[in-house]
Design brief:
Layout lengths: L1 H7 L6 E6 L3 E2 L4 E9 L5 E14 L4 E17 L4 E9 L11 E11 L3 E10 L2
Parallel strand pairs: 2-8
Antiparallel strand pairs: 1-3, 3-6, 4-5, 4-7, 7-8
């Protein structure tokens, strides 16, 4: 009964965090780091991990996906209080414009488990 209540309120679900070597990058540069998956109170089966590069325009309030960074299909068990590190490397497109107060970039990561999903956003700065 307690597990059902926790599941309903998404308590105890796994979390994802993208850890990057640098958050300030140039167009065409490699983004390096790792995904840190952490278990909470319940065992989870990890089905898929997805990460996309998103650009947001503050002036017209739009955002769009530039491209998919990675999609990893898996069937891994994440134990309560356990963790998994998955290395990540990605080359930014050469044609990105510099970040500004009106143009921002982020890496949006989704972790899909057997009974839940969670999302993480990491802003990166593109320097011309």
């Amino acid at each position: 009964m307690l597990k059902k209540c926790m599941s309903l309120f998404k308590l105890g679900q796994a979390t994802i965090d993208l850890k990057l070597d640098s958050y300030e990058l140039k167009p065409g540069e490699n983004v390096n780091g790792f995904f840190l998956l952490k278990g909470r109170w319940m065992k989870q089966i990890i089905k898929r991990l997805e990460c996309d590069l998103i650009v947001q325009n503050q002036e017209d309030k739009t955002e769009r996906m530039i491209e998919s960074v990675t999609t990893i299909y898996m069937s891994k068990e994440l134990t309560p209080d356990g963790s998994i590190e998955i290395p990540m490397s990605y080359q930014l497109p050469d044609d990105l414009i510099s970040s500004s107060p009106t143009v921002t970039y982020r890496l949006q990561t989704r972790l899909i488990c057997d009974k839940s999903r969670c999302v993480d956003h990491d802003e990166i700065t593109i320097c011309g």
